Amino acid sequence: MGDLLSEARSLDDSDQLSCFRDEFVSIEPDLIYLDGNSLGRLPKRSIEIANDVIARQWGVQLIESWKTWIDLSTTLGDRLSQSVLGAKKGEVVVCDSTTINLYKLALSIIKEQRGDKEARKKIVIEADNFPTDRYIVDSLAQEFGLEVITLPVDDSQTISIDLFEEAFDEDVIFGCFSALSYKSGARIDMAAVNSIAQGVGSRVIWDLSHAGGAVVVDLEGTESQYAIGCTYKYLNAGPGAPAYLYVRSDLIEAMENPIKGWFSQDDQFEMAEKYSPKSGISRFCTGTPNIFGSYLVGAGIDLIAEATIEALEAKGHALGDFFIKGFEVELKDLGFSLASPKDQSLRGSHVSLSHPRARQITSELIDHGVVPDFRTPSLIRFGFAPLYQSFIEISRAIQVIREVTIGMR
Amino acid sequence: MGDLLSEARSLDDSDQLSCFRDEFVSIEPDLIYLDGNSLGRLPKRSIEIANDVIARQWGVQLIESWKTWIDLSTTLGDRLSQSVLGAKKGEVVVCDSTTINLYKLALSIIKEQRGDKEARKKIVIEADNFPTDRYIVDSLAQEFGLEVITLPVDDSQTISIDLFEEAFDEDVIFGCFSALSYKSGARIDMAAVNSIAQGVGSRVIWDLSHAGGAVVVDLEGTESQYAIGCTYKYLNAGPGAPAYLYVRSDLIEAMENPIKGWFSQDDQFEMAEKYSPKSGISRFCTGTPNIFGSYLVGAGIDLIAEATIEALEAKGHALGDFFIKGFEVELKDLGFSLASPKDQSLRGSHVSLSHPRARQITSELIDHGVVPDFRTPSLIRFGFAPLYQSFIEISRAIQVIREVTIGMR
C-alpha cells in the first residue's frame, strides 16, 4: 500500500484540477465519496445561487422574475451545448426528466413515420441500457407493434461494433444506447454507431446521463442526431434537477412533441385557443419548468466550462487507471474482478468491480466511510468525479476495501 | 375612499388569519402583491427548509438522503390529500408538472377503452380551460380521432349546469374542467358535474390549479375520480415546484401510466429487465423527482394545514367581496366591469375586472406598486391569497387603480 500512497501523493501534486476540489462544500473529513456518478456533490456556489433564486428572485421580485425564467430552458441548453455537449446553439433544451425527454423523442420519431407504407418495425437497444430507457422503449414498442432487438454485452463489458453492424438494417427506426454504461462505465464509439445507423437511414438516441460532464461527448463531431441526459451526476446540479434533450438542428422542424404543453406553444402568453408549436428546440418544453433546479444546472455547467471537459476526461481516466492499478495489486486476490474496460479510451469516469458478496461489501464500506454504490446482483460501482476527486482518496479507498473484505471472511 | 379604508382596518383587526402574514418573507413595504394566484409568495420557513435540503441533505448526507427522498412523492401526496384536497391516503402523488400529469391521466383513460367496440368518441372541455389543458386534450383527441366538445362560458362567467347535462352522454369518455377558471375565478359545482358525468358512465378530470389551497375542494365528498393541479400558486411552493395527480383509490389499479419511467417500477432498484408497475398511486411517477421543489411543497402544505383550508376559503371570499365592493364604489364609473361571479360561493380567491385598456392599466399599476396580472385581451386578474393578503392592501389597491386609470385619460 505504501507505493500506492506515495504515487497518489505525487499524482495529486501534479493535478492541474486539484483547485476545483475547493469549489465543493466539505463533507465529513473521513468520508470518501465515490458516488458522484449517481449524485454529484454540492458546489459551494450553488448555495449562493439557490439563496439568490429563493430569497431575491422569488421572495422579493416575485412574478417579475418570470421575465428571466421564461427563457431558462433554452439559454441553459445553449450553455450546456457549448461547454459540455459539443452541440450548436439552439439544439439543446433543459427541461423535465431524462425519462420524459426520452419518451418525447422516441415517440416523436416513431410517429414521424406513421402513414408510411414502408414504415420500419424495429428498435435496437443494448442489454445494459438503463432501466428507465428500456421501460420507455419497450412500452412504446408494444404500443406500436414494434420489435425490440437487444444487443448483448460481452465479457469485456463492451458491445462489439460488429453487433451494431448486424443489428442495423433498413427496418430499424432507431437505436437507443447509453454512451456510457451505467453498470460498467463502458463507452460506445458514438461516431461509429451513428455512421452505421445513418448508413441505413436509421437514427440513434443517445443517453448521455453517465457521459455528460465526465467525458468529451462532441455531439456535432460524432454526427449525433438525438440525445438526452441528466444533470445530477457529473453536472452536480442536485437531486432531481432538470434533464436535457438534444436534437440536431436540421431534424428539429420535422419533429412533433407528443406532450403539447403551454411552454412549447408559440406566443405562449397569447393563450391562443389552438396549439401551434414554437419553432426550434423549445418545442420540446412541456409544462412550467423547475426554476431552482435550472439555476443549479447553470452552476454545474460553469464549473465544467472553467475546468474544461477535455481536462476533466483526462483526469477521470487517470483516476480510473489508478484505481484499476490498486485493484490489481490489492484486491484481485480477494475475489474481486474488474467489471469495466481496462482501456481508458473505452471507459467513462467510473469503474465497477464484481464480487459474489458485493451487496454486503458495499454496506460494510459505507459503514467504514467509503461510499460507492451497489448494483444488483454483484456489482460495486466506484465513481471518480474529476472535479473533486483526489488520488489519495482512491488509495485510501483501496486500503479500506481490502481491510473490509478481509474482515468479512 | 375613507369608508373603505376604515372598513379595511376593522376587517383586518378581526381577521383570525392575520398572523400568517408574518409567515412570509417581507416584500418592499410599498408593494401590493395581488398575483399570488399566479406565483405565491415565499414562506419564511421555506428558506430554512431549502437550506437544509441543499446544505445538509444534499451537501453532507449526499446519496444517503435518497432513503428519505425516494418516498417523497407519495408521503407529500398523503399530506396534500389530508390538509388541502380532501382525498384519502394513497390517492395523490406529487410529481412532474400539471401538463405532464394531465397527459398521463387523459391518455391512460383513453387507452383503457381501447379494443372496446362501444368505445366512446367525445371529450368535453370548457371555453375557459387553461391553455395547456386544451392543448393536451386537443392533441390526444386528434391522435385518437375523438371529438372535442367545448362548453361556452356565459355572461356571468359561469357555465350553466344544463350545458353539462346536455354535453354528457354515453359517448363521452371524459370531461376536463378547471374547478376554478384561471380567467374569472368562477367555480364549478364539482359534485353536480361529477354526478352528471358518472350518471352516463363517464368521468371528469379536474384541474385544481387555481383551487388547491384557495378553497375547500373535498375530492372525496364531491365523488371526484381524477384531478391534477400545480403547487406554485396558493400552495406557495415556488416557481416550477412539482405538481400533483389524484386518482380515486378504486380506479387506480385499472390504469396504466403511459410514461413508464423507473420511478413507477415495482422494486425499482432491482433494476428488472421488464417493466412491472408499482401498485397504488405511485405508478404515476415517472423519472427522478424534483427534490427541492418537493420539500417546498411540504412547507406550503403545512401552512395550509395550520390555517385550515376552511378558514382560508372564508377569508378569500371576504377579500373578494371587499374588492368587489371597492370596485362598485370607486371603479365602475371608469370603464371597468366585473369579470368574475359576484356571488362568493361561485368564486375562488381571485377577482377579474375587464377594461378596454387592461394591458396598459396593468402595466401602469405595476409601475405604481400594485401587482395584478393581465390576461389577453382585456382582463386584469387580482389575486387575494388568504394566507398573506390584508384588507388594507385591497383598499389601497382600489385607490391606486382609480388614480392610475384617471391619470391615463
From TrEMBL, chains A, B:
Top-rank taxon, per record: Bacteria
Cofactors (names): pyridoxal 5'-phosphate
Enzyme class (EC, first level): hydrolase
Catalysed reaction equations from the record: 3-hydroxy-L-kynurenine + H2O = 3-hydroxyanthranilate + L-alanine + H(+); L-kynurenine + H2O = anthranilate + L-alanine + H(+)
Keywords: Hydrolase, Pyridine nucleotide biosynthesis, Pyridoxal phosphate
UniProt EC number: 3.7.1.3
GO MF annotation list: kynureninase activity; pyridoxal phosphate binding
Pfam families: KYNU_C
Any GO CC annotation of this UniProt entry: cytoplasm
SUPFAM superfamilies: PLP-dependent transferases
A GO biological-process term: L-tryptophan catabolic process to kynurenine
Pathway info: Amino-acid degradation; L-kynurenine degradation; L-alanine and anthranilate from L-kynurenine: step 1/1; Cofactor biosynthesis; NAD(+) biosynthesis; quinolinate from L-kynurenine: step 2/3
Quaternary structure note: Homodimer.
Protein purpose: Catalyzes the cleavage of L-kynurenine (L-Kyn) and L-3-hydroxykynurenine (L-3OHKyn) into anthranilic acid (AA) and 3-hydroxyanthranilic acid (3-OHAA), respectively.
Family, per entry: Belongs to the kynureninase family.
Protein name, entry field: Kynureninase
Organism: Acidithrix ferrooxidans
Lineage per the UniProt record: Bacteria, Bacillati, Actinomycetota, Acidimicrobiia, Acidimicrobiales
Gene that encodes it: kynU
